[in-house]
Amino acid sequence: MHQITDWGLGEWGFYVAPDAAKGTGRALGVAALRYAFETLSLRKLCGEVIATNVRSLRFHEKLGFQREGVLREQHFDGKNHLDVHYFGLLIREWRSLYLGNNS
Hints:
By secondary structure, this protein is an alpha+beta fold. The chain has a single domain (3-99), classed as 3-Layer(aba) Sandwich (Aminopeptidase). It is 34% helix and 32% strand. The protein has three helices and five strands. It has a five-stranded mixed sheet with strand order 1-2-3-5-4. The longest helix is centred in the first third of the chain and has 16 residues, at 24-39. The chain starts with a strand and ends with a helix.
């Protein structure tokens, strides 16, 4: 986890090797979510994705993250100002998706 607050909010970031075996990213993502919610007892995990990174946008959605907003022209790549999408996953959403309960 990149940053954790005293009130149970965490931010994450990651990089997957381009030549990693298929499914590696999802397996690592699910393991990181389990660690965040079970070991660190977070109540919410957040992430930011540059708008042009379509694979990462889809990855967050497949893991169950919800888009919470767009930070317009937040990132500069040397040529362009790009939007950044903000994602969040609550512990109750994680429990429902991965543990099959709504508590």
